[in-house]
């Protein structure tokens, strides 16, 4: 017997909020990735780790906010807590691998393709592992073609997001990268949900499945990732170096000077000839 699947039991509320959550996580994570490019390689790991966790938390939150609108009319749904936590770990780790590749190798060529592919596969793995944590009086089957399409959407959109974030050409590019990451998560999610086919067990009276209900389990578990996203947002907001490159300082009565660095020792302006002192008699 086929179950009646409803992915929009709360109307457009859950898809819209889920998409915005995916964009928020993507915006913070990609901003941290871009910020890391301004650092020397030995100091990039902190920003990349923060960015990976932000994107992983964002896509995980997006998935389970959307799942609160998922319902099978003939069966009660429950979720396995351990599987849910494992899906969050998979999202952070696999996204981190892709982010670190792009962060250290640059958002171009083979590094961009590899990083985008790993990030997209991380989004897809998180989704289907989270779906494996659903407990109901039946089983979930998938349409293979739609599953493949959902994975392709995640990979292409994640690659586009990493490429757009690496352009560093102003606010519009940042917004475009964030929307691309939100599209990667939401598009992958709802394409994957369209592949779902629920087959119910042939029982006269079915017992409630073991596990926590969506309302009692999902909402409390979202508090941690949402709190982390707020913390990451505060770190990005109060970052003293919001633009690429080293800041310039202006001294009274003098033009702008670059701060000393390993590339520009002594703070001299590039291409400026050093002064040569002549001996006085």
Automatic annotation (TrEMBL):
PROSITE patterns: MHYT
Alphabetical list of PANTHER family matching this protein: DOMAIN SIGNALLING PROTEIN, PUTATIVE (AFU_ORTHOLOGUE AFUA_5G11310)-RELATED
Superkingdom of origin organism: Bacteria
Name under which the protein is recorded: Integral membrane protein
The organism of origin for this protein: Streptomyces albus (strain ATCC 21838 / DSM 41398 / FERM P-419 / JCM 4703 / NBRC 107858)
Biased composition range(s): Basic residues: 270-281
Region described as Disordered: spans on this chain: 247-281
Keyword terms of this UniProt record: Membrane, Transmembrane, Transmembrane helix
């Amino acid at each position: 017997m086929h179950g009646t699947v409803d992915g929009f039991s709360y109307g457009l509320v859950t898809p819209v909020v889920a998409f915005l959550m995916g964009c928020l996580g993507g915006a913070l994570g990609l901003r941290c990735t871009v910020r890391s490019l301004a650092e020397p390689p030995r100091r990039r790991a902190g920003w990349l780790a923060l960015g990976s966790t932000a994107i992983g938390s964002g896509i995980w939150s997006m998935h389970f906010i959307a799942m609160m609108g998922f319902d099978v009319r003939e069966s009660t749904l429950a979720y396995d807590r351990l599987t849910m936590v494992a899906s969050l770990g998979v999202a952070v780790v696999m996204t981190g691998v892709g982010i670190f590749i792009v962060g250290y190798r640059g958002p171009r060529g083979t590094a961009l393709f590899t990083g985008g592919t790993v990030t997209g596969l991380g989004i897809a793995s998180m989704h289907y592992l989270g779906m494996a944590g659903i407990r109901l009086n039946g089983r979930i089957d998938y349409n293979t073609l739609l599953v493949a399409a959902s994975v392709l959407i995640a990979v292409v959109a994640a690659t586009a997001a990493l490429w757009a974030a690496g352009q560093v050409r102003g606010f519009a590019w940042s917004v475009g990268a964030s929307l691309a990451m939100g599209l990667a998560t939401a598009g992958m999610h709802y394409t994957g949900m369209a592949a779902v086919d629920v087959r119910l067990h042939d029982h006269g009276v079915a017992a409630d499945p073991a596990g926590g209900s969506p309302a009692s389990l999902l909402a409390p578990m979202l508090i941690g990732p949402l709190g982390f996203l707020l913390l990451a947002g505060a770190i990005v907001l109060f970052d003293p170096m919001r633009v690429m490159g080293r800041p310039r300082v202006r001294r009274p009565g003098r033009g702008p000077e670059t701060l000393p660095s390993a590339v520009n020792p002594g703070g001299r302006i590039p291409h400026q000839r050093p002064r040569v002192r002549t001996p006085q008699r």
